[in-house]
Amino acid sequence: MPITLDQLNTASLPEAVQLLDGLYEHSPWIAEKALLKRPFASLAALKHAMVTVLNEAGTAPQLALIRAHPELAGKAMVSKSLTAESSNEQNKAGLTDCTPQEFAHIQQLNAEYNAKFDFPFILAVRGPRGQGLPKADIIATFERRLNNPVDFERAECLRNIHRIAEIRLNDKFGFEPTLGNAVWDWHESLAQHTDPGYAELGQLTVTYLTEAHRACAAQLQQQMLDCGFDEVHIDAVGNVVGIYHGSDEGGFPAGQPQGETLAGEQRRRAGEKTLLTGSHYDTVRNGGKYDGRLGIYVPMACVQELHRAGQRLPFAIEVVGFAEEEGQRYKATFLGSGALTGHFNPAWLDQQDADGITMRDAMQHAGLPASLEAINALKRDPAKYLGFVEVHIEQGPVLNELDIPLGIVTSINASVRYLGEMVGMACHAGTTPMDRRRDAACAVAELALYAEKRAQQDGNSVATIGMLQVPNGSINVVPGHCRFSLDLRAPSDAQRDALNSDVLAELTALCERRGVRHTLDETMRASAAPSAPEWQARWASAVNSLGVPVHQLPSGAGHDAMKLHEVMPQAMLFVRGLNSGISHNPLESSTSDDIELSVRAFSQLLQQLANPNS
Amino acid sequence: MPITLDQLNTASLPEAVQLLDGLYEHSPWIAEKALLKRPFASLAALKHAMVTVLNEAGTAPQLALIRAHPELAGKAMVSKSLTAESSNEQNKAGLTDCTPQEFAHIQQLNAEYNAKFDFPFILAVRGPRGQGLPKADIIATFERRLNNPVDFERAECLRNIHRIAEIRLNDKFGFEPTLGNAVWDWHESLAQHTDPGYAELGQLTVTYLTEAHRACAAQLQQQMLDCGFDEVHIDAVGNVVGIYHGSDEGGFPAGQPQGETLAGEQRRRAGEKTLLTGSHYDTVRNGGKYDGRLGIYVPMACVQELHRAGQRLPFAIEVVGFAEEEGQRYKATFLGSGALTGHFNPAWLDQQDADGITMRDAMQHAGLPASLEAINALKRDPAKYLGFVEVHIEQGPVLNELDIPLGIVTSINASVRYLGEMVGMACHAGTTPMDRRRDAACAVAELALYAEKRAQQDGNSVATIGMLQVPNGSINVVPGHCRFSLDLRAPSDAQRDALNSDVLAELTALCERRGVRHTLDETMRASAAPSAPEWQARWASAVNSLGVPVHQLPSGAGHDAMKLHEVMPQAMLFVRGLNSGISHNPLESSTSDDIELSVRAFSQLLQQLANPNS
């Protein structure tokens, strides 16, 4: 008999503690302390309360909790002394059904992990709808996590424990993240298409206008139709565009290319607008399943719900699956969203991929018109739009570390990148006194530490020296040359410029002090795309209504919203990424619970937009 | 009519200024100011006084002096407006006889140099005995110096101006560094032998027991005989040993292997001792002409002088050309000097070179006995020796930068070397806030700057991170790994150990602070070889007697004296290296004037040792 939230909120404390028995392994105190915060507006709010209790408890109780867990496929499993919950979870992951080799391998990993960290390896092995994670994924994750620093790994274990508790709580409440599961399945299904050569490796790679890319477009088109979109088409650059009309049946579907004669033209009525949303469906090489695609599927799930309920909003919803954002096959980053803002670069048509195929030929092969006229006609009239929103997996560690499922983007950061070389004088490491040196590596070291400190001052700026090398360095030669890269980002152009100017001034000063010189070539510069305050507020209100804490953060990575920002107000919603927010990597991951929350937040945004005064 | 030092010391100031006219291009004020320090004990003292005047004059007069010089093969030469001295010098370097291509190339270099430094390129183009430098060497040096920092290049021009002034001064005084020239010629002659494959490249490479190496040994043997050594032989490891008997004709020649039956055995008398000296004649690949060899030839020149004068000292002099110090063909560093201290490693005999030839085979091919018995018999009895002295080119920038020709070594530094890796966590450079990072490169940067600062505190310790690399670094990825080397040296074991312990403690602390970990493997550790105070004092007295400033400095590089240090007192004399003291490089260079001073210093040491109370 599932518990209800009302039942939990009104029970006596001992009864309520009993209701939540078994969520955290051998540790009822967590639920008990969280229950002091009753009533809870949602399961999400209850989960967050328990997360907060554990985070505030300090290291000793956290370690005790971790150590209360059984080893994965460990001795307790063999001796049948697992808790009922653990046994069920490990069984579903197929871990009670290992081959002797797999079992021996996991025992070895357990031994190494325990020796290094002094606590057992914890992994939430139940995926969406109680399915187990594939054994191979479990072992790969185990091996990867063995390399982590101990404090990081302690936190990672706690995050997995919260995920385990979330799944157990869902079971107790008979709650299924149905929408999240559906969106999860869509991602799984779309991820079956991958470019030639990658399927064999089990890798996901979908680059512009390949067979796999066109299969994705066709699948998205069909899924949009199935969801109940009124009009769906693939445009002249391969974007998949779905429109769900507004309640005013005469509403002009803004997404229809301007140049086309429309059957619906007569339905046009002045003042009727469209909300634009979407993200990209191409991927980097060996990428993740959620980068981009989550921003197409989340609004699709919302439209499906509206369609099922027979509901029309006082505005149209236009969802675009952008064909190209990653710039992998051709150096044409943001091609898909750029076409909507009139920024398609005509020179791109003649650009060749690694096999010598021009983009024009690739377009023609894909059945696209490959004409600039058709592409230019994709440009949208901003006056017809309310704005642009985009859901995206965070691709960073912030939400994951804070144990918060959703985040509201304040700005897509401005950035500037350089490649540089420091030139001092190579000399004998034994015979050259410290005050006679012009050490190129120490000069770059000083730059790195200054940039690190300076970015830290801003709180939300970042500075990175990602490439660093003394070419042909020898153990006994003071470096005469040192190559480096420099990547600076900040939420506004002004903040980026101030950071940039301080870092470059210090570079000049330290070169002067050290008697070295440098070269520095700017390789990239992008303006910030601050989120429109009113759209940020809408996201905040939507997230808050779910009982989920509202957290705001800048986006350090670029997104399609940067392009739309040039012509209309925009704001993004981030969904927590697991595994420290790893992205552009097969380990990129989310949960169906988090996805469910993002669908509900998007639905809330739509409803609040439809009823601003409710 | 040459000037005499007495004439200069007693002339009126205007007369003396006139006598020194033309030493420094269009700048009589330098000699004028130096003359206030009269009387001068030696030409070397006068030279140093002028160096001091210019060094203390400040930047503006220094720049004016540099700019008073003509361009190399420049317009002034073409228009015949050079000073007589410059014209003579450029003519001797063959620069007035350039091909049109060479002339155009030099003009291009002049233009680039002037544009970068805003003063003309100055190079002392007259070699020993007024010979010009080869045009190819001039052009190679010009190209290399174009890469120098501006303040360094200003100092380098001044050093060359001092060298030009020295040559002009020698001309005025009719002074020829005869001993220096002879030793210079010996080096040139010995440098004609080079290993197969290097002659074609114009490179000097002499590795253990090659044909070139054996030719060097034969040549050294003949040169020793020509100098008047009483006994000369090549020993069981290829060392060339020459003995010049002491005045006591019955003196036992200590250098004779202990096991051998000697014709001179009956001459043995208790208490008669030998001064041991020498250095190595093998080279690194593409090495310099002076590294090692200077320490054989300088005492040979002294013995030649003694022999010519028919003088015997109250002790024997044993000069050893060590066969192997660099460990190039076989990993058997210090084989030659180690044989004298009983440190020949028997396993070396079976070591193979790159062509699979064992050392045993190489020895047999060279006509050496290749028996451990014969090698072990080379071990010297320390009781029979006064001590060991070694002359060596500095291989560092200290004397060159101070404009001082000779230096007395206080200690051969203790050292320790490591190879390490810093391990943090790779993450997205855009999306990972500064306070969420575990940047492996920033951690190494902190180590580098700490080690630099800590070594600087000691004054004469050195710390170097010569190898530094973020493997597979990307511009937009925070480094998860960073590889580095660490080389720490100090004049005593205790000082090295304190430096080492502080640097490792900081490494541990910064890893803790930054949540990163590291690996560190010790690859080498060598004890310090402090010079014997009484032998340092003898060198200081000898140098001082020449009117040359006494400068003491540690040796950062290892030398044969390190091995002899294990069994007897030792002290080294360094000779300034040109081109910032570059070594293990064809640009390693000295002057016949500096070499002359080192021969005279060594002779002084011998005379003072012979007459300690004079």
From TrEMBL, chains A, B:
It comes from Hydrogenophaga crassostreae. Residues 9-170 form the Oxo-4-hydroxy-4-carboxy-5-ureidoimidazoline decarboxylase domain. It holds the Pfam family OHCU_decarbox. Keywords: Hydrolase, Manganese, Metal-binding, Purine metabolism. Belongs to the peptidase M20 family. The lineage of its organism: Bacteria, Pseudomonadati, Pseudomonadota, Betaproteobacteria, Burkholderiales. Homodimer. Its cofactor is Mn(2+). It comes from the Bacteria. GO terms for molecular function: hydrolase activity, acting on carbon-nitrogen (but not peptide) bonds, in linear amidines; metal ion binding. GO terms for biological process: allantoin metabolic process; purine nucleobase metabolic process; urate catabolic process. NCBIfam families: hydantase (TIGR01879), UHCUDC (TIGR03164). This is Allantoate amidohydrolase. Gene3D superfamilies: 3.30.70.360, Oxo-4-hydroxy-4-carboxy-5-ureidoimidazoline decarboxylase, Zn peptidases. InterPro entries: Amidase_Cbmase, Bact_exopeptidase_dim_dom, OHCU_decarboxylase, OHCU_decarboxylase-1, OHCU_decarboxylase_sf, Peptidase_M20.
